[in-house]
Automatic annotation (TrEMBL):
SUPFAM superfamilies attached to this UniProt entry: Ribonuclease H-like (SSF53098)
The name this protein goes by in its record: RNase H type-1 domain-containing protein
Organism: Solanum tuberosum (Potato)
Residue stretches making up the RNase H type-1 domain: 276-405
Superkingdom assignment: Eukaryota
Length: 442
């Protein structure tokens, strides 16, 4: 731990209340301590020891910051760091590698270890809804660790070779057992014909990759990625039954077993609900492509008849999905305070934000300041925080993605909306259901 201290110490962030932390030797900007950031050649002014000395009446002393710090760093602090509140509360340290802000050895190890980029192949092998034994079988196949005769010869175990899958036996190879034999060929052909996939002339790995990379709807991708694993599993079971028990399994039985054991899809009907009479509803959403990556926020306001009163989307700097969701709610609350609305429902598809704002979960350190601002904006309002599924948050989701693709946008009424937005508004007013389709874990 002592050897790694210099590598991880800058991950401690001080959340300022009184501002008693060291200007130069504590990390209160999120970038690291200023002594290290500015470099050894920088002439730093040691007459300033505490952060509170850089403020004036609860605001940053801009001239002082620009005088003692490099201009870029001073501008960053002015724009992104909240000055100390002046309260007598103690400044508190947060561990930036953990959402709860508490130090753990696990997060420290994950930070300093050298880890390779995740391999998509293994993500597809360990697909949600596939039992461990089936996914492990696919992993063994991908690593050529299946004990068929040709693999045993490569491992130095010589002996006669016979395929147990065919009436006219051939040499037993991975390709023959799982692709070229009559049973395997008919099984693959059955499922590929329904999926519209062509596998003629392809090798075994290529066939599997065709299924994994199929261009299909997002809701169906787990099925396409799971099916090869179940086909391989059933073909291997058939081979072992024939070799060790002398029992045959028909093609139709294999197809039935694959179909029966495939992940089940749960379908949920989701509706956008009207607010009660006299109330207004904000739908908010944050988007982050890459998480962290290109991000945006969006919110829309509708009355008890479902009519749009205002909608806004804005791009953000690269950040996480949690920050984007918090920013969306904060901007909606600011708009509510400015417009002087009193009976408000704020609906988000982020379970985390809903639980945090209801004070049921701990506040992640990275959005603690925004959560305080949200509560301050809504202090004198009659408000309700609600969670909805993503499918019930279509308009805000569309605006957030539009902000990433095309930049900031504001709409004050239905007629100013683009065609896609109008369609969503009309569908919501007509109570048209959206279907949420997700695989169910076994």
């Amino acid at each position: 731990m002592l050897q790694a201290r210099d590598l991880i110490e800058h991950q401690i962030l001080w959340r300022m209340k009184k501002g008693s932390v060291s200007v130069w030797h504590d990390n209160w900007t999120g970038l690291g301590d200023l002594y290290t950031i500015t470099g050894e050649d920088f002439e730093w002014d040691d007459s300033y020891t505490k952060v509170e000395e850089l403020t004036n009446q609860g605001k940053w002393n801009v001239e002082m910051l620009k005088d003692i710090l490099p201009l870029e760093l001073a501008e960053y602090i002015i724009q992104h760091i909240h000055p100390p509140t002046g309260k007598e509360e103690k400044d508190t340290p947060c561990w930036m590698l953990d959402s709860g802000g508490s130090f753990t050895v696990k997060t420290s190890w994950q930070y300093i270890r050298h880890k390779e980029e995740p391999n998509k192949i293994y993500k597809w092998i360990w697909t949600k809804g596939v039992p461990f034994k089936v996914a492990f079988m696919m992993w063994r196949l991908w690593k050529f660790k299946i004990p068929v005769d040709d693999r045993l010869r490569r491992w130095g175990l010589e002996g006669p070779s016979k395929c147990w899958c065919c009436e006219r036996p051939d040499q037993e190879t991975l390709t023959h057992v799982f692709l070229r034999s009559f049973t395997a060929n008919r099984t693959w052909f059955y499922f590929c014909s329904f999926a519209g996939l062509s596998i003629s002339g392809l090798q075994l790995r290529e066939v599997i990759m065709v299924w994994w990379g199929a261009n299909t709807k997002k809701a169906l991708r787990p099925l396409y990625r799971a099916l090869p694993s179940f086909v391989i599993w059933e073909l291997w079971r058939r081979r072992n039954r024939m070799k060790h028990e002398g029992r045959k399994t028909s093609v139709s039985r294999i197809i039935y077993n694959v179909t029966r054991n495939m992940p089940r899809m749960k379908v949920t009907k989701v509706l956008w609900e009207y607010p009660p009479e006299g109330w207004l509803k904000y739908n908010t959403d944050g988007a982050s492509r890459g998480n962290p990556g290109l991000s945006s926020y969006a919110f829309c306001l509708r009355n008890d008849r479902g009519d749009i009163k205002y909608a806004e989307g804005g791009s953000m700097e690269n950040t996480t999905n949690t920050v984007a969701e918090a920013k969306a709610i904060l901007e909606a609350c600011k708009h509510c305070k400015q417009s002087q609305y009193n009976q408000i429902i704020i609906q988000t598809d982020s379970m985390l934000m809903c639980k945090v704002l209801k004070e049921q979960w701990l506040v992640p350190w990275i959005i603690a300041d925004m959560v305080e601002e949200i509560k301050a904006c809504m202090k004198d309002k009659q408000h309700i925080f609600q969670h909805t599924l993503r499918e019930g948050n279509k308009l805000a989701d569309y605006l957030a993605n539009r902000a990433i693709d095309k930049g900031n946008c504001r709409f004050s009424d239905f007629n100013s909306m683009e065609v896609t937005g109008r369609k969503i508004i009309n569908s919501d007013k007509l109570k048209c259901p959206y279907l949420r389709i997700v695989p169910v874990r076994r």
